[in-house]
Design brief:
It is a single chain. The protein has 4 helices and no strands. By secondary structure, the protein is an all-alpha fold. It has one domain (3-123). Helix 1 runs antiparallel to helix 2, helix 2 runs antiparallel to helix 3 (65-92) and helix 3 (65-92) packs antiparallel against helix 4 (101-123).
Length: 125
């Protein structure tokens, strides 16, 4: 997988989604819903930036390509599940969608733990 391209697309989406929230939803959402939406954007940005770093770590030989792929997929899943569920929750107000959010958070945590474990294993070579 070309994680640099995927990360760039995710970052472009984060900017677009953030701008939509700031300009298109500001007057339509209450303070709570706008905060939920913004939280989704922040996590989207941070983890897309993390995804951008993954190929650099692979190229530098600090983690294996397999570890990079696992980390990339987990970060992507986290963005879709965590941030995506927050976007939908904020816009629709359907609270049952909040049940998906923890799976995204778990994906984020799994991505960072995978990266840490693989980096530690790699440094022992």
């Amino acid at each position: 997988m070309n994680w640099t391209a995927v990360a760039a697309i995710m970052l472009a989406l984060a900017v677009s989604i953030g701008a939509f929230g700031a300009h298109g939803l500001q007057s339509r959402l209450d303070t709570y819903s706008l905060g939920v939406y913004e939280k989704g954007v922040i996590y989207h940005f941070f983890h897309a930036l993390g995804m951008l770093a993954v190929p650099l770590l692979v190229r530098a030989g600090l983690i294996s390509e397999s570890a990079g792929n696992w980390t990339g997929w987990l970060l992507l899943a986290g963005i879709v599940l965590f941030s995506g569920s927050l976007y939908v929750l904020a816009i629709t107000g359907v609270r049952t969608l909040g049940a998906v959010t923890p799976f995204g958070g778990a994906s984020f945590i799994a991505a960072w733990v995978t990266l840490a474990v693989c980096a530690l294993r790699s440094s022992g070579r």
